[in-house]
Amino acid sequence: MSVLIGRALLDYLKTSKEAEIISFTSLGEEDVLPVSYLFRDLETMPEIETRALDMAKGSILDIGAGSGAHSLVLQDRGFDVTALDSAPGAVKCCQKRGVKKVVHSEILEFKGSTFDTIYMLMNGVGVAGSLRQLDTLLLHLKKLLNAGGQILLDSSDIRYMFDCDNNGKPILPNEDGYYGDILFSLYYDGEYEPPFPWVYVDFDTLAIVARRCGLVAEKVLDGPHFDYLARLTPN
User: What are the pLDDT digits (tens) for 99-143?
Assistant: First the structure.
């Protein structure tokens, strides 16, 4: 997770004063995210997230845990949950909110434990950075799964943001790329964070990459904004 978002989480936890994180993308899009949304409870979570949480089983790894919103729901339900985040502010926030097991690490550097359920919600799979690097991420996650384990993730098909050719293929400025590969930059409380790569992956492409990695992709649910929830299991 972004270091700037981690700072925003701690600020809100301390003051409860509403603030906003502004994101900018290489597609020219600008979005405003209220920091309070990152502290949402079960009643205000979208259906994709509540459905994913209902599918939990066994020991759990919550990647990109942020404020610990998902981890706390699962912990309250009696699950053994490990919350993982790369932002120090997010790690401190989870600890202060009562998450019992919290790890400060980049996901590709995390090893030594295995789980029955791995979560990457709020487009957490985007941390792969690009479609070309998605194999590396999925192969690593597969190593973290116990036998019979599952990976639950959501992402979006951002094809709608592009003009398309007669075959429905997005027309890109650079035809060598994948349309879901973008750059993000963030602004919060007077500070900009340098751009970082992120990937939104459509389900059909996710299924192809998963198959290469020895995983089976199942679409669980379509969301209202070209998003979806997917479940990956070892083949």
Answer: 999 999 999 999 989 999 999 999 999 999 999 999 999 999 999
How far is the CA of 232 from the CAs of 21, 146, 148, 209, 220, in angstroms?
31, 13, 11, 11, 10
Is the pLDDT confidence value at 81 over 80?
A: yes
pLDDT in tens, 3-33: 899 999 999 999 999 999 999 999 888 999 9
pLDDT band at 159 (very low <50, low <70, confident <90, very high): confident
List of E strands, 139-235: 145-156, 181-188, 191-199, 215-222, 227-234
In whole numbers, what is the pLDDT of the chain averaged over residues? Answer: 94
Q: Which domain holds residue 82?
A: 44-181+198-234
Here the CATH number for the domain that contains residue 135 is 3.40.50.150
- Residue 126 forms part of a structural domain: yes
CA angle 208-211-214, nearest 5°?
160
Residue 111 lies in a domain: yes
User: Contact 65/84 with Cβ under 8 angstroms?
Assistant: yes
151 near 141, Cβ under 8 Å? yes
Q: How many domains does the chain have?
A: 1
